[in-house]
Design goal:
- This protein is an alpha/beta fold.
- It has a single domain, classed as Alpha/Beta hydrolase fold, catalytic domain (Rossmann fold), CATH 3.40.50.
- 39% of the residues lie in helices and 19% in strands.
- The protein is built from eleven helices and ten strands.
- An eight-stranded mixed sheet has the order 1-2-4-3-6-7-9-10, with helices on both faces. A two-stranded parallel sheet has the order 5-8.
- The longest helix is centred in the N-terminal third of the chain and has 14 residues.
- The chain is globular and about 50 Å long.
- The chain starts with 6 loop residues before the first strand and ends with a helix.
Length: 272
């Protein structure tokens, strides 16, 4: 497997916000949408997946959501699902992306679903890993992983050790959390306002899942402490063309803990 060259471009969009997009490879576009949490960014969430998709002939697109990575991090606003989705859609269009497969984890899964509903013409297929935005907020806020994340990041003394504990809560086996990953995410977390989590207000897309007509592939870690495993049933019951895989002894990051399998199964799905 070759090591792909990743380039970076920042797009100024409506509202004066900057959205950073990194990319590698060429071919059909595959957009990877990361989740929330202190220090999250496109490349840090999907570093173990980039090379496999580039080698398979795809153009890998890695945006940083507003409030994350190298994108703008406004204060004093609500971080709504429409804010995340609208800013990403505008930035992707500015980047020349007319249609793509969307791969979304957690909050990024919610953004991918919202795009699939409201910007259907841009979405070829959906790949979702423990997607968010399919429950009411109180259900998510009661999940132990999210309780821990909000408590730690809400502290004015958020530290490198806190960052490590949060990263380890995303996986079943902490061996997947490297010093490089912790340091990379901590540098981002230090630039993020508390509003990114304290004022996150995502809505529940479950009533609209039946509107998704494109093929859907989903993954869920059986030991996920952030998103209830029962979410799988919503897609299987309501969507026209969905299939899901679960993995035992895996947490919130299937694409990290089972990277080789995730890459292989997803590429097979993309090839039809």
């Amino acid at each position: 497997m070759t090591r792909a060259t990743v380039t970076r471009k920042v797009h100024r969009i409506s509202g004066g916000y900057d959205i950073c997009i990194q990319e590698a490879g060429s071919g059909p576009a595959v957009v990877f949408l990361h989740g929330s949490g202190p220090g999250a960014s496109g490349l840090s969430n999907f570093r173990q997946n980039v090379d496999a998709f580039v080698d398979a002939g795809y153009r890998v697109i890695l945006p940083d959501l507003i409030g994350y990575g190298a994108s703008s991090k406004p204060e004093g606003i609500d971080y709504t699902l429409h804010l995340f989705t609208d800013t990403i859609v505008e930035a992707l269009k500015a980047h020349g992306i007319e249609k793509a497969t969307l791969i979304g984890n957690s909050l990024g899964g919610g953004v991918a679903i919202q795009m699939g509903l409201d910007h259907t013409e841009m979405v070829d297929r959906l790949v979702l890993m423990s997607p968010g935005c399919i429950e009411e907020l109180p259900i998510y806020f009661a999940m132990p992983g999210i309780v821990n994340m909000k408590s730690a990041f809400g502290s004015p003394e958020f530290s490198l050790a806190d960052q490590r504990r949060l990263a380890e809560s995303l996986v079943f086996d902490p061996a997947h959390v490297t010093d490089q990953l912790v340091a990379e995410r901590f540098e981002v977390a230090r630039t993020q306002p508390k509003d990114v989590l304290a004022r996150m207000k995502t809505h529940n897309l479950r009533p609209r899942l039946g509107e998704l007509k494109m093929p859907i592939l989903g993954y869920w870690g059986f030991n996920d402490t952030f998103m209830p495993l029962t979410g799988i049933n919503y897609f299987l019951e309501d969507c026209a063309d969905a299939r899901f895989m679960t993995f035992n002894k895996v947490g919130h990051w299937v694409q990290v803990e089972r990277a080789e399998e995730f890459n292989r199964y997803t590429l097979e799905f993309l090839r039809g």
